[in-house]
Every structure is written in structure tokens, then in C-alpha cells.
Design a protein that fits this description.
Length: about 140
């Protein structure tokens, strides 16, 4: 009987230690935030910002926010990084609908000069933003 009590005591203490060691600390969060604030934007962030600043994307975002009563919005992320053979950041513009990301548009932003082109999935090709605006 005494052995069972000792066993449960150590089990209880072990569980408390395990649970308490898994709790995140707040001490690390400010350091990460400060580092992010100090660092300058890289080309990946600039590519996303360039696409998100297109008037058509701003308009579409306003419509999504209005229709969802400000619960949803469009955001951008880099899906593919540039390579020596393909110098483009592939930037997807998506809406998080709660279950998944729904892709609205995909753009290619040239790593060398940050020139933006629209990816046409039906033709599997890049077209200029001017041409895309005619389709939009």
C-alpha cells in the first residue's frame, strides 16, 4: 500500500512538472518582436507589399471585408521563391475562410526589378498587369 502511494506521488509530481514546463513564457515574445521591428524588409516582403498595393487587390479586399462584416480579408504570401531558372516570387493572394485558404490570384514578382505580372492559370502563362486589368 505504501508503494502505491509513493508511485502516485511521483506520478502526480511528474505530471505537474510536465504540464508546467510546457507553458509558453512571455519573456521570449518581446525579443522576437523587437528583432522583427529592427530588421528591414527583404525582397519577399516587398514583393507581397507590391502586389497588395495594386488598386484591384485593395478593391477586392474592401469587398471581402464588407461582405464578411470585417471578419475576413485578403492577404498575400510567397508560394515559390526565385531560382536561377525562374527569377520570380510567386505571390498568392488568398482569403482565409476559416477552413482553408482560398486563392483569388497568383502574381509573379521579378526578383531583379520587382516588376509584377499576373499568372493566368487557364493559359498556364504570365501576362502583364495591364492585360490582366482588361480581363478584370
Amino acid at each position: 500500500m505504501k508503494t502505491n502511494r509513493i508511485y502516485f506521488y511521483f506520478l502526480y509530481v511528474g505530471m505537474i512538472f510536465l504540464v508546467s514546463s510546457c507553458q509558453p513564457t512571455d519573456k521570449k515574445t518581446p525579443a522576437i518582436s523587437q528583432k522583427k521591428e529592427k530588421s528591414s524588409k527583404n525582397n519577399e516582403d516587398i514583393a507581397i507589399d507590391q502586389v497588395m498595393s495594386l488598386p484591384e487587390i485593395k478593391q477586392e479586399n474592401a469587398e471581402v471585408e464588407k461582405d464578411s462584416e470585417d471578419k475576413r480579408h485578403l492577404s498575400g504570401y510567397v508560394d515559390t521563391l526565385p531560382t536561377p531558372k525562374d527569377p520570380y516570387y510567386r505571390v498568392n493572394i488568398v482569403e482565409d475562410n476559416g477552413d482553408s485558404y482560398v486563392t483569388y490570384y497568383t502574381f509573379a514578382v521579378d526578383n531583379r526589378d520587382l516588376h509584377i505580372e499576373y499568372y493566368d492559370p487557364l493559359q498556364d502563362s504570365l501576362i502583364s498587369v495591364e492585360q490582366w486589368r482588361k480581363l478584370f
